[in-house]
Specification:
about 375 residues; alpha/beta; five-stranded parallel beta sheet; about 40% helix
Amino acid sequence: MKRKHIIIHIVSLLCIITLIAVCYFMPRVEKASVTGNMRSESYVGGVIYQQSAEVAALYKQTFQLAKNQLDKKIAENVGTGKSLAIVTDIDATLIDDSGYFSGVLTDAEGRKKSGKDPWNNKDWCGYYTSEASDVSKAVPGAVDFVKYAREQGVKIYFITNRPYYELDLTVKQLYHEGLLDEETLKAYSGLEADNGSLQKIYADDELEAFAKMVNDETDFTMGEGYFTLKNDYTIQVQGTAYSSDKAERRSNVAKAMGDNGAIVLYMGDSINDMISYDEYKYTDYSEDESSQFDRTKGNSSRSEAVMNDLWKDKWGTEFIIMPNSAYGDWQKATWYKQSVDENGEADAIRNQLSEHSYLNSGTWYDGVSPVDNSVE
């Protein structure tokens, strides 16, 4: 009997040794990855989504909704003598900028050679090179909608968070994609002045020279909050303060329209394109009202604000929002716009997922326990 036990132990030991050897010497199977970096990998799904047929349909559907609402506004305006206007964002609203993300997410080697970390939505190097490439096109439905609005006599104002030194590129890109009329293109042609393009002297140490050239030698106007054609405001980019808040630029449009004009639609992929914290400085909104969508409030609070009495009837009638799962205010709102490192961001994402998880929620159901079969 003792001998039998010894044999069994020896056999068991040999089996264990064999299993260890097989595991050790068998080919290693690496986890599938597109970018080779976990932080960058988290953006891949969002970029793929932006290229999907579903998003193309959403854009087309949203512009159809905007057209329907515009027709209603035009009908209501008959006989009033008022001029009408639309205020719109550019990137991920009229122009597809997802080609940039596709580039940086798949260029790990190139970034490594140039001393850059894997892209994680903080380093936007190359963004405007991408905007000047053939891959950046108007989103489905955008050109038809803009042309239709112009045919109805509606003025289009473009407000973007591109920096002041990219105004020339922005103007030419809008024209190239059929979103800008030739008259506006010519009006902004002063960016290519005889004494050198304004776009070539944007470095911080030349900012004073840039501002002087703008204010003294051209028909453009520059402030901390905006840079645009003087007394026109058709295309407004960020000013020297690089503020992403668009409230002042929206107020510029309202002033340009005057008492005999009205902004009937606001369009964008971020709520900041319609309403933002600084709104109370330029409109009748109170500070509490305009700050409801501030990123420091967090996603839960901002989501609740969407459906409160002040805003709930504006979506789809006055505010037209576009799909953008690649970037936006919703990201920074996840960590309440605090200055945190990547670990802090990851913790904030985990916390939000946990708060929204059914595993940490109560239930309304008091019947027999559901059977958890997976379905597609």
